[in-house]
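Section handout 9: paired folding examples.
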Amino acid sequence: MASGPDVDPGYVERLGAICMALPEVVEEDAWVGVRWSIRTKNFAHLVAIADGRPAAYAEAAGTTGPATVLTFRSAGDELVALSAVGPPFFKPVWFRDIVGLVLPHEPAAVDWDEVTELVTESYRLLAPKRLIR
């Protein structure tokens, strides 16, 4: 990883299992955190925030940390709703279709069913149609 605190391996393991069950997904270290991509498009990204770093994520999420955030893609009514609902969701400014979620402090406290739905839909928005079937 290029900079920033390391993401708790418990989050990476759990989210990785969800993401890697989807066709042709690649998991890799990002400039900060860990991301999952379909082809060259990121559909899920985990980032740890500590002491206000990385600044872009800390500012978008409204926290100096410690925290773990997940960003993913969304569209339509869901994008509008998640962008407006407030904590634990937040709306980063770097892509129009990206949404963030501040995760609970312990991986065991995460609603993994909800996360599965969110990242699966994110994947569906970016994957080639033949893979979605």
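Moving on to protein 2 of 2.
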Amino acid sequence: MRKVRWLLVASALLALAACDAPADTVAAQAPAAAPTDTPPPLDPAIAAGEIPQRFHGSWDAEGGSCTPASQHWITIAARRITFHDGVGNAAGIGNDGADPIVDLVMEGAAPMTLESIKLQLTAVGEREALLLLPGYDEPKGRPLARFRCSD
């Protein structure tokens, strides 16, 4: 018990001594910061709390009808994603690099829930595809590629 008290007192005294040290002494003891890469500028839409324009429009899985009746159909607007069975209103939007991460308040067939979905554009063959990560309705844990519908 006596050793524990002594260690606590010694730690407190060291902390106080560091607080009383001149600023240049403390700065001289701090290790030099490693150079970091400058992050890319934040997409203005994400900064404004919106889903970027490049994601807007209707999307459906390969062979889908591109209508709300299609199981994998979605449509994306600035602050809303509409699925065939419900609507997600953006409660917050962040980013992972250039990809937006959208927190959606889901309303529809199930009770209201909060889903966090990363939107990512990729290429499948020569076509642009949209992935929802972690997919809203991924079959067997694999992202489902959706392709832009002709609006």
